[in-house]
């Protein structure tokens, strides 16, 4: 009896974890299309920065595809989670006062302070992600799943290159790398996710699964 309960607990924990990650990775690379647009417009002469953002976008899609394959091998789809489980979603909403989808890319391009703010939000989000992966790789439940361990080790390897370009650009421009308000916002979003949102998702066994993959309508160019 105890072993069955323990196994069910671990399976639910990993299911919730992977579902939240697949949402965030998909949200990440699709949102970075607009970030890349802004970077190309504002930093057209900085080919290195543009290339680093392109790599960031490619890595996020790679991570999404790894989690997608994880579920395909299990023969199921992830739990259906929304932007309330997205760190970057909530960060953008707190700092810019709108959803990612409603963020005005043209305004970010035209107004330097908005572009700098966006770089800081991405940088802090990716730094948070790097710390979280380090914690997960020490988690006994995660370590019980060899496939997830391999996925998280790849993410761990990639993460530094996801925040460093934005940090480097801000430093090169002699701009703030983070304000007190931004750091506190990052902290409280993380705590609310860890202590409230994710536990509630864990216990809500009525949460449905996705009906289709998030990238089902995307056109992949050869």
Give the SSE map.
Layout: H1 2-42, H2 47-74, H3 87-96, H4 105-110, H5 112-136, H6 140-143, H7 146-158, H8 160-172, H9 180-203
Helix pairs in contact: 1-2, 2-7, 2-8, 3-5, 3-9, 5-7, 5-8, 5-9
Short description:
The protein has 222 residues and is mostly helical.
Residue-averaged pLDDT: 94
Helix content: over 70%
* SSE order: HHHHHHHHH
- How many whole angstroms does the radius of gyration measure? 18 Å
**Major sheet summary line:** none
Q: Quickly count the helices.
A: 9
Q: CATH architecture, please?
A: Up-down Bundle
Total beta strands: 0
Q: Please name the CATH topology.
A: Ferritin
> Which structural class fits the helix and strand makeup?
mainly alpha
The CATH superfamily bears the name: Ferritin, core subunit, four-helix bundle
CATH class: Mainly Alpha
Overall outline:
globular
Strand coverage percent: under 5%
What is the number of domains?
1
């Amino acid at each position: 009896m105890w072993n069955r309960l323990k196994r069910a607990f671990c399976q639910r924990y990993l299911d919730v974890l992977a579902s939240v990650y697949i949402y965030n990775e998909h949200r990440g690379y699709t949102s970075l299309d607009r970030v890349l647009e802004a970077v190309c417009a504002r930093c057209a002469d900085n080919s290195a920065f543009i290339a680093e953002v392109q790599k960031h976008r490619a890595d996020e899609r790679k991570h999404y595809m790894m989690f997608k394959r994880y579920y395909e091998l299990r023969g199921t789809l992830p739990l259906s989670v929304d932007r309330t489980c997205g760190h970057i979603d909530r960060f953008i909403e707190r700092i810019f006062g709108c959803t990612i989808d409603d963020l005005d890319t043209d305004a970010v391009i035209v107004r330097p302070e908005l572009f700098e703010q966006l770089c800081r939000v991405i940088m802090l989000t990716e730094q948070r992600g790097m710390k979280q992966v380090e914690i997960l790789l020490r988690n006994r439940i995660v370590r019980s799943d060899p496939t997830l361990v391999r996925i998280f080790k790849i993410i761990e390897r990639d993460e530094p290159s996801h925040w460093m370009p934005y940090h480097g650009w801000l430093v090169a421009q002699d701009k703030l790398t983070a304000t007190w308000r931004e750091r506190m916002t990052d902290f409280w979003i993380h705590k609310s996710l860890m202590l409230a949102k994710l536990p509630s998702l864990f216990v809500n066994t009525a949460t449905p699964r996705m009906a289709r993959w998030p990238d089902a309508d995307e056109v992949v160019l050869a």
